[in-house]
Structure prediction request, 418 residues.
Amino acid sequence: MRLELVTIGDELLLGFTVDTNAAFLARTLSEIGVEIVRRATVGDESERIAQAVRDALDRTGAVITTGGLGPTADDRTRPAIAQVFGRALRMDEAVMAQIAARFKRYGYTSMPASNSVQAMVPEGATVLDNPNGSAPGLWIEDERGRWVALLPGVPHEMRAMTTEVIVPMLTKRYATNGAVVLSRTVRTTGIGESALAELLGEDGHDTVAGLPLAFLPGWEGVDLRITAHDLPRPQAEAALEKAEAKLRSHADRYVYGRDAANLAAVVLDLCRAKGWHIGTAESCTGGMLGERITAIPGSSDVYVGGVVAYDDRVKTSALGVPAALIREHGAVSEPVARAMASGIRSVLGTEIGIGITGIAGPTGGTPDKPVGTVWIATDVGGDVQATGRRYLGDREDVRRRSTQAALDQVRRSVSGVR
Prediction:
């Protein structure tokens, strides 16, 4: 089946809140064969909400909305949708009792009067239980079989209702004969989008092994998304395996995982298998590499610690980088990055040392070393490798890309990939 999503809220349009609800709904519903054909976002204005839903109903006859079901004046979804269907809002005493009981369970002596609007239900609508919040969901349908499901905008409430209520309802309503829409992401790093497409050759065009292929570049690298549509799950999974194998046959040295793989976790697993340990010495990244590693549960058995050597005096005193080396080559240079990597390895007694030094910007660059210049060195058991890079983007981009490149340099060294 096909449906449309309408997410509602000024905070989404203004960019203060990232719309994770639509992404979750698209992923979850695709697994039961539902195709999301369009997504729209509108602000908290009744007529705009109503118009977006009218347009979606005219196109597909099936709509899910999120947001605007709360108790405050800017929550206008309920009356707007009632208007679309020409239904009056009526107080539902059973819903009112449930809301009041919820407040009582949480220690309130009485329910705020404003919450009573959440018990207003369009005539003929079905109330959808929301065990995690005060705003119930609603299902409203017309005589032509066109319907709208209204879900709350609070992410954890919406997710629970989607999996526990909406998915079973749609599965029962629309028999898909087991057909699903499945996607797989092959994660690459260390190669640009155009270079990767060229490397993939014919398999870098619109399809690979018969499946649509999308290039999704970001600071972590370029993700390759392949999607199987309207196939039984076993066939979809087999098609994805075949497509992934073809991608890997071209670009395996750049591939570090699939789907939600985290490069820091990949590196930790590789080191853990060998019984090796990591120490980090960071200048321009200011501890970001250590933070990425320690964000992974269980990292303490691999990651020993690090030094944020922002000032040159810390590079010399804590890491043993010769002051003469800094004077001759500058703090942002290959020799200093190498000395930092070997220095932290010696200080902490680890098998692996990582050194990063650079100019993250927006100031500090020179004609010879412009903003974005970074040197990354890894010392793996005495084998020191260093790479100089120039990153575009703002300060955060430079720092994040530097940590990703450092982790990938370790991945390649530990796994023997060149």
